[in-house]
Amino acid sequence: MKIETIEGLYEIIRERKEHYEEGSYTCYLFEKGLDKILKKCGEECTEMVIAAKNQDRTELSNEMSDLIYHMLVLMVEAGLTLDDVGVILEERRQKTGNLKKFHVVDKNS
Q1: Do 25 and 40 form a contact (C-beta atoms < 8 A)?
Q2: Mean pLDDT of the 51-68 span
């Protein structure tokens, strides 16, 4: 996946929020508001999980693409930029070997 693709899609989505375009699905989502955007994110996430469970690579790629698109719509709606998320992702990328220690409960005590 090229970062230019994500950046380009984000810019198109941002423009659709600022300038209504007749027949645009993105404009429709913004018009319907946060609840509709969140519903679509949830639907696409569930469909992605099912495709992964079914081990269908083509469907998984499609559903991941749908989820990423709807997440970008949510980012624009929430006023987040790619840099807002990118900073956090970079921080996580820099962490290596940071397996969390899980608390083990002794069920015999």
Answers
A1: no
A2: 97
